[in-house]
TrEMBL record:
The keyword Lyase does not apply. It comes from Thalassovita aquimarina. It is a multi-pass membrane protein. Keywords: Cell membrane, Membrane, Transmembrane, Transmembrane helix. InterPro entries: LeuE-type (IPR001123). It comes from the Bacteria. It is found in: Cell membrane. The keyword Transferase does not apply. This is LysE family translocator. The chain crosses the membrane at residues 44-66, 73-91, 137-161, 173-195. Pfam families: LysE (PF01810).
């Protein structure tokens, strides 16, 4: 892989990881509701789960979508349905209280979420198509490694931002309003996936 291609890959990984999307909106809400430390498993689940997703897409899953284009559409709309349910859960979340069962997404849940996250699929398919077109193990490994290095610091930024907002969100009304806004932004993050021409 040439230096120019590596630079382009790093820029794509950063731009797609740092911009708003389902993962980042959920981490912003998690940071505001639970703080940075309790959101660490969520962040690691995203970073490691997405890196593994790139590897699996590169070594074979992309071929499934090539052979059965309808499978991609089915997965996309199943993911949208799940994200709408998550948005509803976020909008109706209250103040976390001692002894309550409110908790951030854990590592396994966050890693599994990548498989129903339309933006994650879009990122993985685009990364493999553009930067590992020959689908060699070496090229797929480089794409996965670059995303692994860039994704975690990028998504962590949103958790830190959410945590910093805790001081402002100290009242139930403010936190509820914030969670409703986060839910709406999560839904809005689906627009570029459903209507690529609009992005």
């Amino acid at each position: 892989m040439t230096y120019e291609l590596l630079t382009g890959l790093a820029a794509f990984a950063f731009a797609s990881s740092i911009t708003p999307g389902p993962n980042n909106m959920m981490l912003l809400a998690s940071g505001a509701n639970f703080g940075f430390r309790r959101s660490i498993p969520h962040m690691l689940g995203i970073a490691i789960g997405f890196t593994l997703m790139i590897v699996l897409v590169g070594i074979g899953l992309i071929g499934l979508f090539d052979a059965f284009p309808l499978s991609h559409a089915i997965l996309k709309f199943a993911g949208v349905g799940y994200l709408l349910w998550l948005a509803w859960k976020i909008a109706n979340a209250g103040m976390p209280e001692a002894g309550s069962n409110a908790r951030p997404m854990n590592f396994v849940q966050a890693a599994a979420f990548q498989w129903v996250n339309p933006k994650a699929w879009q990122m993985a398919l685009t990364a493999i198509t553009l930067y590992a077109p020959d689908r060699s193990v070496w090229a797929i490994g480089i794409v996965a490694a670059i995303f692994g290095l860039i994704n975690l610091p990028s998504v962590s930024t949103w958790t830190v931002l959410g945590q910093q907002m805790q001081r402002v969100l100290s009242s139930p009304l403010r936190l509820r309003s914030f969670n409703v806004v986060m839910a709406l932004l999560l839904v809005a993050s689906l627009v570029p996936v459903l209507y690529p021409a609009a992005s």
